[in-house]
Amino acid sequence: MPKTATTYQPHLLDPNSAQPQPVSPANGRSFKLAELYQLLDCQTVDVVRVSEALILIIDDEGKFRKPAYLNLLATYVWHQHQPEARGVDCIVGRAILCHDQQFR
Question: Would you say 18 and 32 are in contact if contact means Cβ atoms under 8 Å apart?
Fold first, then answer.
């Protein structure tokens, strides 16, 4: 995987889709809160560290939605990079996988 924010293509991981969807920050560099709220269809976000450079930006209140949709792809990515999370927690709702420099 590319190590710089300028070369990493962020992806929207939607629990209702089997395929990650490429997304880009409106300004071409980093996501702002307003656009994250729109992309994730939420009002509060949280950041889950995946690796030294990659993060998942998630709907912080996704588990409280009715219905709440388990995000298998985001959970799988998280568990692959952070095995201590396996069997402990999961990601619910939409998520964006991006370089940590792409969220400012």
Answer: no
Q: Give the Cα separation of 100 and 70 in Å (integer).
A: 23
87: left (phi over 0), alpha (psi -120 to 50) or beta: left
| pTM, entire model | 0.89
What does the alpha-carbon distance between residue 56 and residue 75 come to, in Å, rounded to a whole number?
A: 10
pLDDT tens-place string over residues 9-30? 999 999 999 899 999 999 999 9
Q: What is the pLDDT of residues 79-100, one digit of tens each?
A: 999 899 899 999 999 999 999 9
**Cis? peptide before 22, omega within 30° of 0:** no
